[in-house]
Amino acid sequence: MSAPKSSPESSIVLETRELTKAFGGLVAVNSVSIVVREGEPHAVIGPNGAGKSTFVNLLTGHLPASGGQVLFRGRDITSLPAHRISRLGIGRSYQKTNIFPTFTVFENCRLAAQSRLSSSMRFFRPARALADVNARAERAMELAGLAARSGRVAGTMSYGEQRQLEIAMVLATGPDVLVLDEPLAGMGREESERMVTLLKGLAAQYTLVLVEHDMDAVFSLAHTLTVMVNGTLLESGPVDVVRASQAVQDAYLGDGAEAY
Amino acid sequence: MSRLPRPVAIALLALVVLLAAYPLYGAWLFPAKHAFLMQKITGIMILAIMAMSLDLLVGIAGMVSLGHAAFFGLGGYMLAILSPEYEAANIWIVLPAALAIVAAVAAIIGALSIRTTGISFIMITLAFGQMGFYFFNDSRLAGGSDGAYIYVMPAVEIAGISLMNLENKLVFYYLVFGLFIGAYLLLKVLLASPFGRVVQAIGVNESRVKGLGFNPDHYKLVAFVIGATIAGLAGFLGAAQYGFVNPAMLSWHQSGTALVMVILGGMGTIFGPALGAFVLELARMGFEGMTEHWLLPMGLFVIAVVLLLPKGLAGLLLQLGAKPAPEPEDEA
């Protein structure tokens, strides 16, 4: 695994500046500024309703921002539509399993890999004949530990496997940055452990942004930690520093840390 | 998914052979009604082309359109309008021109409709369909509400040599048969292509398609235009067959009938809606022969099929034809 680099400007991959989202009167994300550096797994935590999911949706263009900026390698990508952001190299997974349940595992991944063609407006050659797309789909399935499930109809797999597929699909798009929205949500013990192992492997190859509830997983994976409460940023920095912060202790981790 | 189970493929192939050979055995089997039946079947194949084209929108891309007949009717009207009154039109000019116009109109209507989904999409396509209906109903173009006749079939010639005489019912039967099979194969090829895979995925989970980096609107629009153009071809053939067009071709009634064919036959399978066209039209013929109040048993029949076969006739066939599924291995 690449060691966390000390921070020259160039290593900043993703950055938000005073990013804000208001739904009517409710400010779900309030002026949040964070910095995600190359190769440093970055976790965003916070209690329910802290605005984490909204934050992810802003990062990946699933929601337009009300204010502030999102920068990807120095380029302003604020409020670009989701498909454009995906094409820039920011892949995301979803909190709620979001796959094509009637397609096979392979076809889910193949379609994700196909999204990297300059255009899919190709009408007469079978999609299956695109060798490099197939190869990328296979690689993604392997990385996510689904190689043996290739021919299964996705909707018939176990919940944990569907979550793996979710990750495989993101990988198949060949992203630079992986934004994972609660990859462990709803998983049992064993499934969780498998997923954490998978994520650790991915952290070595991709820049991870992880929104998660599971504290053990967060502490074992992340180098940088951002804590959100009520839509605002409470603290952001190296895991140890943030963990030790009094404000975080009081507001969030407190004595109930293990409860999450 | 895209490959049909072998027994189903064989059954469909048998039906196709039955259809292809009808002119050979029809006169012998139904001596009194042969000519009528051949015309009827030609008409059903035309409707089947339209139903399959609608399936691309409804069953594949998840866009439930209630205005599809507008393109069917437009294709027919284009033949009527572009044909010289008492001589044969050149098919190499009128057919491409008709399809190009249908495609252009579909591109405009599609661009305005595609951003809506669900009920809104149904309503907006219905509204456009009705606009088309009243455009031809109330204008002086092509006879207004009375419709217009096409007195002479288009000529299919190359360098003055006639390739087919469409006035010949048998020739026309096989032309329509060829285009019916061709439309099916074209749709299957499209669905297997990168484009088709995206459109299918949109029908399953549009927001995920967007998250993967595709712009769904582009693909929906192209699918809409392709579906409309194929419907336009069906309308063109329909107008040629009956030598007549009227605004009813564009009516929401016609759109609704096509939608019933799609649902009855089995959405998203392409071959299902073609089956749906045959079953619906043959059932109608049967009930019409039995009673003046045929709409009542007809309605009951449709309700029964939809209730008993939620996935349509195609769903039933696929279920019967499916191999006893290999038990999903180890589910820990």
From TrEMBL, chain A:
Family matches, as Pfam families: ABC_tran
UniProt GO cellular component terms: plasma membrane
Domain of life, per lineage: Bacteria
Domain ABC transporter residue range list: 14-255
Alphabetic keyword roster: ATP-binding, Nucleotide-binding, Transport
InterPro entries reported for this sequence: AAA+_ATPase, ABC_AA/LPS_Transport, ABC_transporter-like_ATP-bd, P-loop_NTPase
Cross-referenced PROSITE patterns: ABC_TRANSPORTER_2
Gene3D superfamilies in the cross-refs: P-loop containing nucleotide triphosphate hydrolases
Example GO molecular function: ATP binding
Xref: SUPFAM superfamilies: P-loop containing nucleoside triphosphate hydrolases
Listed name of the protein: ABC transporter ATP-binding protein
TrEMBL record, chain B:
Organism (species): Magnetospirillum moscoviense
Signal sequence interval, chain numbering: none
Top-rank taxon, per record: Bacteria
InterPro entries (UniProt xref): ABC_transp_permease, LivM-like
One example GO MF annotation: branched-chain amino acid transmembrane transporter activity
Regions that span the bilayer: 36-58, 89-112, 119-136, 148-164, 171-191, 221-245, 257-282, 294-318
GO cellular component terms, semicolon-separated: plasma membrane
Keywords: Cell membrane, Membrane, Transmembrane, Transmembrane helix
Membrane topology, as annotated: Multi-pass membrane protein
Compartments reported by the entry: Cell membrane
UniProt-recorded name of the protein: ABC transporter permease
Primary location: membrane
